[in-house]
Amino acid sequence: MLTIGEVARRAGVATSTVRFYERRGLLTADARRSGQRRYHDESLRRLVFIGMLQDAGLSLDDIAGVLGATHVADWKAIARRRLGVLDAEITRLQRARDYLEGALLCRYDHPATECRIMGQEIDRRLATADVHPT
Amino acid sequence: MLTIGEVARRAGVATSTVRFYERRGLLTADARRSGQRRYHDESLRRLVFIGMLQDAGLSLDDIAGVLGATHVADWKAIARRRLGVLDAEITRLQRARDYLEGALLCRYDHPATECRIMGQEIDRRLATADVHPT
DNA sequence: TTGACACTTGAACCGCGGTTCAAGTCAAGT
DNA sequence: ACTTGACTTGAACCGCGGTTCAAGTGTCAA
After folding, report:
1. Are the beta carbons of B39 and B10 closer than 8 angstroms?
2. B49 neighbors B79 (Cβ within 8 angstroms)
3. N or C: which end of chain B has fewer CB within 10 A?
4. CA A82/CA A70 separation, integer angstroms
5. Could you tell me the pTM of the whole model?
6. Which residues in chain B have Cβ-Cβ distances shorter than 8 Å to A57?
7. d(CA B87, CA B3)
8. Contact (CB<8Å) B72/A129
9. CB B97 within 8 A of CB A79
């Protein structure tokens, strides 16, 4: 049985994080010794698993859903939804990346607002602004 | 001269956002009429420009740096730094994406923690955990 | 003149994922 | 007996990028 300090260290998180997850219902201590939490290896694996899902960008609420799923279809729905968001995000970042790289091509010594490349993009956005009225 | 409502609408942000940017020193009203802010087209362009930089993932502090730069080298340094972070982020998301897609290949009707693919990854992470002690 | 509506301010609040703090308990070693 | 160090709790706080609120002022048309 691992203490909270051990389980946190082996999973690579802070002890405060483990307690926070318990508050959020993601993890429960398997026992108490004089009030102190003790964990099975099983819980350590669960903690690592939470970290994996976080790396994939799932929110703690989503993770709770995955952990609480009794059937594969339940958590796969969450994963698929995230996959879609992830794809959109990657595309967006890719565009931002290419745009920034283009901006670096600006020559001459002037502030950013006077850069020709940026100026054109500003005009483009202003022109299409009325297409998406708030 | 545009009112705050107009400038916000044309830039596609809320009026509260425009005031917030003013507090942060990103934007200044060009005039006041009976206490109300008025803006030149120049400021509208500046507001749009802020949105562009936000799309590229720059923080408001970074954006203040770009706007305050008098020489091209100053803002390019910020852009280059963000470009590096962006590349790392894209790579990370790509890996997460591929991982999630792999997880969807799990067969049979069981909870996520019992999935063989996930279980292997958990073991891998636990095994290498000691390499990065906290 | 009345009503509708946009504007003004500072302060408090939001979600997210935790961290930090104070004040205390408990077990082990010397 | 005393120290050391890890643990306990609830509550408050963090950064970020704003939003919302209350209470008031200004503008414009009928």
Report:
1. no
2. no
3. C
4. 19
5. 0.87
6. 93, 96
7. 39
8. no
9. no
Whole-number distance in Å between B102 CA and C14 C1':
36
Q: Which residue is closest, via its CA, to the C1' of C16?
A: A59
Mapping DSSP to helix (H, G, I), strand (E, B) and coil, where does residue B133 land?
A: coil
Question: Contacts of residue A51 in chain B, CB cutoff 8 Å?
Answer: 125
Does the distance separating the beta carbons of A90 and B97 come in below 8 Å? Answer: yes
Residue position matching structure tokens 């051990």: A6
Phi-psi region of A37 (alpha: psi -120 to 50; beta: other; left: phi over 0): beta
Q: 3-state DSSP: chain A helix, strand, coil percent, rounded to 5? A: 70, 5, 25
Kindly determine whether the C-beta of residue A6 is less than 7 Å away from any atom of nucleic acid strand D. Answer: yes
**Tokens read off for B25:** 């020193």
Contact A53, A63 (CB under 8 A): yes
**Hey, what amino acid is at B129?**
A
Order across the sheet with A36-39: list the strands.
A2-3, A36-39, A31-33
User: Is any atom of strand D within 7 angstroms of residue B24's beta carbon?
Assistant: no
Give tens-digit pLDDT for B85-125.
999 999 999 999 998 998 888 877 677 777 888 888 899 99
Q: What is the pLDDT of residues A51-94, one digit of tens each?
A: 999 999 999 999 999 999 888 888 999 999 999 999 999 999 99
SS3 B26: coil
